[in-house]
């Protein structure tokens, strides 16, 4: 009993399997045929569109050619009438010239029409090539975009690594800078002390050296000692005669008033914190650290 039912059930299953197997290839074949039909339809649409463009360009070229022929015919007719009027007046040479000129003009119009017709026909082909170029350009742009995305990701990773390295170098420099700043502070104090010692060593006996005889040099070169008008740093400030030991305001010995080339005026070179400074027509030697006037020459400039 059980064996019989098993055989019946297995026979039914085999029959069902035999019925369903042919339907699977048929379904796959129908899908392939649908894809092929869609591809063929797209290809047929593109071909029909190309044929329409070509027929349109041919019609336009024919219209241009017929229009040029009609215009050439009108030109020839007008030339014939004008030549006939000239011949009636007895001027045969003028009639011949008018006839030749009208023929040349008509030929030129026909040639121009033919050239425009050919250019229209070429234009349809050029448009088709342009469409192909546009498709290639879009594909190229897509590849460029993908490459740019990849490059941007790589650049981001590279910049991130550079930021990490730069931060590390900054921390290293900051640690080294603290030590260097402490050392520089000590050196600045030492330079200031040395500058103060230079102030005490300034020798005012330079006037006895004939090499710095600026008075005789000014007599021979008067134009050198005319530097132009002096502009005070303060609007309402008037000239005051200064002497050694006077403490000058900082604006009066800013770098705009410095005499950068003392030897040009036969003055000795300066060192340390000293600068020769113009003050109206006077020349002052100023300690730029303290503002103290160390040496004075009155009425130096004209």
Automatic annotation (TrEMBL):
Keywords: Signal. Residues 32-83, 97-138, 146-194 have a biased composition (Basic and acidic residues). The keyword Signal applies. The keyword Signal applies. Gene3D superfamilies: inner membrane protein cigr. Residues 84-96 have a biased composition (Low complexity). Residues 1-28 form the signal peptide. Residues 26-194 are annotated as: Disordered. InterPro entries: RcnB (IPR024572). The lineage of its organism: Bacteria, Pseudomonadati, Pseudomonadota, Alphaproteobacteria, Sphingomonadales. This is ATP-dependent RNA helicase. It comes from Altericroceibacterium endophyticum.
